[in-house]
């Protein structure tokens, strides 16, 4: 697998990954990404314009996508049932991770978290964070395997809760 920043030509494949991820979560009974068509190609385009949309390719095909970002995520300001392990106001985080069905179980999401950590260390950033739906057990396993620890619960923009994870570097 090769990791690179996404390009405009990748948008149709990214849209397909997001649609497949929504369908897989729905089939698994996970109430995440089920309202409207979020995320979609327009979300990926915004991430691309900000230089934070990455894709993994395999055999020339886009098999995974994520928003790999650094800064401050407002939804992480309030954490319940625990607390962050660092008081970093600037940290790395991944959002909108989707992996193609044929690439699941091959470590694609782990590659994305490893890249986030690599870039964080390179920038001298003290922590990386992520969040996922309580029912999204596969993503919880990915974050735990990447060394992130469950820190509590945050609420995203629509008010729904997400499990919040962090790795202090």
What does this 3D model show about the protein?
The chain is of the alpha+beta class and 169 residues long. It contains four helices and seven strands. The protein has a seven-stranded mixed sheet. Strand 2 and strand 3 form a beta hairpin. The longest helix is centred in the first third of the chain and has 17 residues, at 11-27. It is globular. The two termini are 25 Å apart.
Number of strands: 7
What's the pLDDT, averaged over the residues?
A: 95
Strand order of the largest sheet: 1-2-3-4-5-7-6
Question: Any idea what the shape is?
Answer: globular
How many helices does DSSP assign? 4
Helix-and-strand structural type: alpha+beta
Topology of this structure?
Blueprint: E1 2-5, H1 11-27, H2 41-49, E2 53-58, E3 61-71, E4 91-99, H3 108-123, E5 127-132, H4 137-145, E6 149-155, E7 161-168
Parallel strand pairs: 4-5
Antiparallel strand pairs: 1-2, 2-3, 3-4, 5-7, 6-7
Task: Give structural attributes.
single chain, 169 residues, 4 helices, alpha+beta, seven-stranded mixed beta sheet, 7 strands, 30% helix
Give a quick summary of the entry:
With 169 residues, this protein is an alpha+beta fold. The protein is built from four helices and seven strands, in the order βααβββαβαββ. The protein has helices at residues 11-27, 41-49, 108-123, 137-145; strands at residues 2-5, 53-58, 61-71, 91-99, 127-132, 149-155, 161-168.
């Amino acid at each position: 697998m090769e990791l690179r920043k996404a390009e405009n030509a990748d948008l149709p494949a990214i849209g397909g990954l997001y649609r497949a991820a929504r369908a897989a979560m729905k089939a698994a009974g996970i109430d995440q990404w089920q309202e409207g068509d979020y995320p979609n190609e327009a979300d990926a385009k915004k991430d691309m314009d900000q230089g934070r949309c990455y894709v993994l390719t395999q055999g020339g095909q886009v098999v995974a996508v994520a928003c790999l970002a650094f800064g401050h995520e407002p939804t992480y300001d309030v954490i319940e049932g625990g607390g962050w392990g660092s008081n970093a106001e600037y940290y790395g985080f991944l959002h909108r991770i989707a992996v193609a069905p044929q690439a699941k179980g091959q470590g694609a999401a782990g590659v994305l978290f490893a890249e986030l950590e690599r870039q964080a260390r390179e920038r001298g950033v003290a922590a990386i964070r992520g969040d996922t739906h309580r029912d999204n057990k596969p993503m919880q396993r990915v974050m735990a395997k990447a060394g992130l620890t469950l820190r509590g619960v945050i609420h995203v923009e629509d008010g729904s809760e997400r499990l919040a994870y962090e790795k202090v570097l």
